[in-house]
Amino acid sequence: MDTKVAMQGFDLTAKKQIVYVRPVRVKDLPQEVRDQAGGREVLYEVARPDGEQLALTGDRDTAYFLARENDLAPVTLH
User: Fold this and answer.
1) What would the pLDDT profile of 11-63 be if each residue is shown by its tens digit?
2) How far apart are CA 30 and CA 34, in angstroms?
């Protein structure tokens, strides 16, 4: 999977919006994403509280880093 991540829909003017980080089974994702998963069984989603997906990453640490770099407050969601 390409390590470049596109961040869509972030409101960078807001103060520390909460975003949720949760594991997502690759088999539950669209075929196009599964093809790019590089053999991983799980990816990590960064999502708004309303469920809108903002990013998918290969690991939890990257998801947290990405959220913090965009002045967001990541919270784990199981």
Assistant:
1) 555 567 999 999 999 999 999 999 999 999 999 999 999 999 999 999 999 99
2) 6
Q: How many other CB atoms are found less than 10 A from the CB of residue 52?
A: 10
d(CA 76, CA 22): 6
Tokens (6 digits) for 25:
């089974």
Give the Cα separation of 61 and 78 in Å (integer). Answer: 15
Domain positions in the chain? 17-76
Residues written for the chain: 78
φ and ψ of 27, to 5 deg: -65, -15
Tokens representing 41?
A: 């069984």
